Amino acid sequence: MIILGSTGSIGVNTLIVAEHYNITIEALVAGNNIDLLNQQIAVHQPKLVAIANEADRGRVNHPRVLCGAQGILEVIEHSQSRTVVNALVGYAGLAPTLKATSLGKKVALANKESLVVAGEFIDMSLITPIDSEHFGLWYLMNERPFSKLYITASGGAFRDWELDKMKDATFSDALKHPNWSMGNKITIDSATMTNKLFELLEAKWLFDTSNIDAVIEKRSVIHALVEFVDGSTTAHFAGVDMKLPIAFALKGEVTKEILPPTNLLGIGSLEFLPIESTRYPIWNIKEHILQNPHLGVVVNAANEVAIKAFQKEKCSFFGMSEMVLDAYKKFENVKANNIEEIIQIDREVRQYAESM
Ligand SMILES: NC(=O)C1=CN([C@@H]2O[C@H](COP(=O)(O)OP(=O)(O)OC[C@H]3O[C@@H](n4cnc5c(N)ncnc54)[C@H](OP(=O)(O)O)[C@@H]3O)[C@@H](O)[C@H]2O)C=CC1
Ligand SMILES: CC(=O)[C@@H](O)[C@H](O)COP(=O)(O)O
Ligand SMILES: [Mn+2]
């Protein structure tokens, strides 16, 4: 197996699961965290390694180190492994997903942006999601006909803040996720509800349905619900730990305990709340983008520019969704016919967003 993004939140959890199942690690890909990568190299002895920057090559304790975006593609190209775990973050994960699937490799996909940006052009038969909600949906559906899918949202860092106070929220405020410990980008996306919008699109491509919605469940005890044609609804309860979805993505079936069972008497009351666009302005486009999922490339590109601007204090918290919604309006008539056009649209949207 090869792991793209081994030094990140998902990558580290994936290595724990891989050790649990004695899965051989053929290659590791990291960005800048060379110290952690060297620790992982010492334990897993990969044949091949890639990192983001050439300047760090000398610090990596390995004889075969590739670098940059091209280096990641070469790792995939030269690997014998049938499975690639894509735990890279953002648009940077798309080309590796396309490379792996073009070689017929299975992709255990945490990098949801691959599907948000180019789901139409990805072979879903090779994709297994590493995402708690989509694992839950798959677990519940169990190949039975359903009438509607639901995923839950924690509400993110500002779910209980006064709207007025959110106007002055900072990047570090937004990193305080109420339930999960994750990488920075997804945590910011949780605060704006962009992560949930992305997850609706992810589910559209994975399960070929737009009949899906999201509700806030603040405890993140329930991750997904499926409403079946008979009118019954089942819910997926699981602990706040990605090792369960990862174990299923790697092993297909899991026959022993991965997480402590849910203590039903310890949960207390559960509540489902609506996602309101006054607090999460990105939710204004939810219905439209579900009917026009090809516009995911626009939202993702503008969102990545907006997050960088927010981090550099060049825009406010709500300024991020203003940037995204502006770009969405500007590019609402684009439709890519192939990956080359996806790449072009991404470039144009980023240029537009950066000029705002
Ligand atoms: N964290 C979670 O619980 C969940 C995450 N996801 C999704 O999984 C993906 C990964 O998320 P997460 O683990 O939180 O992200 P992190 O930011 O924690 O990790 C990202 C990983 O990608 C590496 N990386 C980033 N840029 C590059 C680059 N240019 N070249 C090589 N490596 C790079 C980082 O390296 P380094 O750190 O060494 O710089 C790190 O190993 C995202 O798409 C996210 O939406 C989905 C569900 C849950
Ligand atoms: C763990 C996981 O799957 C994340 O996508 C998490 O669900 C994000 O939390 P939010 O529900 O706050 O977006
Ligand atoms: Mn999720």
TrEMBL record:
Q: What class of enzyme is it?
A: oxidoreductase
Pinpoint the DXP reductoisomerase C-terminal domain residues. 240-352
Protein name per the record? 1-deoxy-D-xylulose 5-phosphate reductoisomerase
As its record notes, the protein acts as a catalyst of: 2-C-methyl-D-erythritol 4-phosphate + NADP(+) = 1-deoxy-D-xylulose 5-phosphate + NADPH + H(+)
Positions that bind 1-deoxy-D-xylulose 5-phosphate:
K112, S132, E133, S154, H177, S190, N195, K196, E199
Query: Does the keyword Kinase belong to this entry?
Result: no
Q: In which organism is this protein found?
A: Sulfurovum lithotrophicum
Q: In which pathway does it act?
A: Isoprenoid biosynthesis; isopentenyl diphosphate biosynthesis via DXP pathway; isopentenyl diphosphate from 1-deoxy-D-xylulose 5-phosphate: step 1/6
Q: Which GO terms describe its biological process?
A: isopentenyl diphosphate biosynthetic process, methylerythritol 4-phosphate pathway involved in terpenoid biosynthetic process
Q: Which residues bind NADPH?
A: T7, G8, S9, I10, G31, N33, N111, E113, G183
By its UniProt entry, which SUPFAM superfamilies does this protein fall under? 1-deoxy-D-xylulose-5-phosphate reductoisomerase, C-terminal domain, Glyceraldehyde-3-phosphate dehydrogenase-like, C-terminal domain, NAD(P)-binding Rossmann-fold domains
